[in-house]
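This part of the workshop introduces the protein records we will be handling. Each record describes a single protein and holds just a pair of labelled lines. Instead of coordinates, the fold is spelled out as a row of discrete tokens. To make this concrete, we reproduce a full record directly below:
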Amino acid sequence: MGRSASNRCDSLGVRDLGVGLGSASSSACPKVHGCDGPAPVTRPLSFPDVERLVVDYLSARPELSGVPVVVTLPGGFDGTASTVLVTRVGGVYAVDDRLDRALVRVDAYGPDKTGAHQLALTVRGLLWAMPVTDVAEERGPHWLPDTPHNHAARYMARYQLTVPVQS
């Protein structure tokens, strides 16, 4: 059953603005305006903690044995120890597929540029084998010394990790 432009949600622009449960590409309607759309999802969605998934996965890998994998640098961090910092920096929820496409930044610190680079390459290889729906590299490892931490040797990279969302 198609929608006509005369129903209340369409005339208010709910779908066009992406307000409520629907979006421009969705037929869902919040039903608060009396239109004829399908009933809304009544259970809240459960989004996975992608930072925690990455930390747990990398921490369990023997290739990173002895290397802290964290979401926050430890107090007193001076940039000389090998460390992997994981930060979610954005992403998008794919409504139709119920997938979270998370953008994750990974900072690989080492005692020097060579050590940081090797750590970044190891993490890079491991993330491609991570058991998620999909992995894409948004920006490969690149050199960027960490000025606030005594110009610590650091390589950064950004990945898109796609994971299912539960309801």
